[in-house]
Amino acid sequence: MINVKNCEIGDNNYFNFSFSYTGVDILKNIEVKITDMENNLIVHKSLFNGMYNGVNYWIGLPPLLALNLGKIQIEFPIFNIVFDYDFCRPTIFTVFGEKFTPVTNNDMSFTTFIEVKVDEVYSRGHIKVEPGDVVLDIGSNYGFFSLYAIEKGASQIIALEPFDPTFKCLVENTKQFDKIATLNLAIADVEGESEFTTNIDYSGCNYLSNKTITGGEFSNPEKYIVKTTTINKIIDDYKLDKIDFLKVDCEGGELDLFKTISDENLSKVQKTVIEYHSKEIGEFVKNKLENSGMIIYNPQPILDLGLIYAYKPKPLKIGILLSAYNSENYIDECLEPWFKLKKDHDIVIGCNSGMYKEYVNFGFKPKNKETLVKLLNYDLDFLISTGPNSLLDENDSKNNILDILKDKCDLVWILDSDEFYTENDIINIIKYISENPQFDWYSVNFKNYTFSKNLWVEGFCPPRIFRTNRNGGINKFYFDNHINYNDGSAFDDKPNSSIPRNIAHIKHYCWLDDDTRSKEKVKYQEQRFINGCSFEWLENENRLIFSDKHYGLETPILHEMIDKTSKDFTIRFSRSENTFYIEDVCKNQTLTFRFINTHTDNLIYETILDLASGVNYFCYPSNVIFSNIPDFYKFKIEVLSNNEIIHSEYLHIKYN
């Protein structure tokens, strides 16, 4: 009667069950039910509109379900036929490591279990249930999320489920945990009673009948009367001073919740995940959250159905790890912006100051007295200075300050005394980090001033800012700005982000001819880095040059500002390709680019480009190989928006 043709999980990780029917045509609905026998949960129900002799039929399940199937049973109740299969990849429902068989109403609850326990849909980035959290579970269903929250260490959970048969299962599933309070109520805009529409096949879709939601048209709806309450009443009744995690999945009830919640009560919410059930509701909830000061995590376009993750930003305690040696001329410009913001932004500044011990091997003498005098003019929180008889290597020197900061601060921010942030740079970076908490560390774009204080090199974007609470916490520096974590992992493969140039582009006096440190840095980096130093020191001329040994034929292009420069893009020139590249585009805009020969003052090439953020562009201006022209040293670049110059610079392709 039922001839199975195929039952497998294919290479695309989809579950496929195909069969044919042999017999008299059946003109009524035929149900086929798939049950996960490991957890006694219904995986799927298909309702076929009749079955006809010789016709093939098919059931498919997506990877999220298919990859978690162990022993399953496929049942045709009308025929009293059962097929058993074992895919040997079971996902077992456990609570605190013990197998747990939840009580349900024999509806399709396997999907909810997998979403909550396997996909962890209510945990994204730092938006997750943490030890000690007070949790509101609005739309608890069978309590899968409440049980998940208990495992994660929640100290109090208030779970609401309005539909009486489902509520009874919720109570049974959570009764052993005193920290879970269960309420047989629906969230609405008023207290009282309301009609409730249910889906007998999937209790997770039940909703108040006065709501219009995506997917609310059931084939066999049933109506019940349920009791309602408001979110403010729940918060007041339980005297909640804070709500660490608000989970909302109440099939349209989220609109009433966010329309009625008071500003005071919304301010108590620290993290929230909301499933919205129409585009209109999604837009309203998103705007309500943002207007309250919450930040949307990884924002996505609002569709007819989706999830919104949001959090209340917490002030970050920032630890500055300052390295300052032989740099007295830079100390004031480096430190003044930080000290202006220190109190308002809860900044702790620790400084290591002293010559690295490797310098002694090159015969260099300590030159730090004037720098120390400058540093003592500032109210540093910590200052560790090493004299000639107690020198440390670079790693140990930084780790001394790191050991103090990492347990006191949320961020450790590396700062060298020749790096000059403005107040706006610092504020913008802090804002960016607060709005992008999913990253473990952040790199910063620097303008590396080279040879003189009017020329710089682009492309230096090293790791600078590390969160201290990730991966078991920071352990130590093991090389340069590279850290490892207490869980044994290194930083480089962790989630990270480069601070966009249009947020901050930091002046860095790193390789200047008149800086007494430059000659010593060349020797130090030659022995420290595998590829040696990128510069050479010409002793007879007392100046730096790019190292051909390091760079080969394509040494860096030097930039020189004429009038103004934009942070919305960078321009570089490749000598070998005779091509300009417009890169690091941060903004959509239409711009005119002019490339001018400074030797003749003639326009080489002009083009209009419709720039799109994140896209790189190139311009091949001429067949003339400019790098081969003996007296040609630099291009003049002008960039215009609406006939107004917004960017003008020289690009030096040669430097004497």
What does this structure look like?
This protein is α+β, with helices and mostly antiparallel strands and 656 residues long. It folds into four domains: 2-86, Immunoglobulin-like (Sandwich), CATH 2.60.40; 102-311, Rossmann fold (3-Layer(aba) Sandwich), CATH 3.40.50.150; 318-512, Spore Coat Polysaccharide Biosynthesis Protein SpsA, Chain A; 558-652, Immunoglobulin-like, CATH 2.60.40. Helices cover 19% and strands 37% of the residues. A hairpin with a 4-residue loop joins strand 6 and strand 7 (81-86). Helix 6 (253-260) runs parallel beside helix 8. The mean pLDDT is 93.
Portion of residues in helices?
10-25%
**Rounded radius of gyration (Å):** 32 Å
How many strand elements?
43
Which stretches are low in confidence, meaning pLDDT under 50 for 5 or more residues running? none
Query: Largest sheet, if any?
Result: 7 strands, mixed
CA-CA gap between termini: 90 Å
Strand content: 35-45%
- In spatial order, strands of the major sheet run 12-11-10-17-18-20-19
General shape: elongated
Q: How many domains comprise the coordinates?
A: 4
* CATH architecture heading of the largest domain: 3-Layer(aba) Sandwich
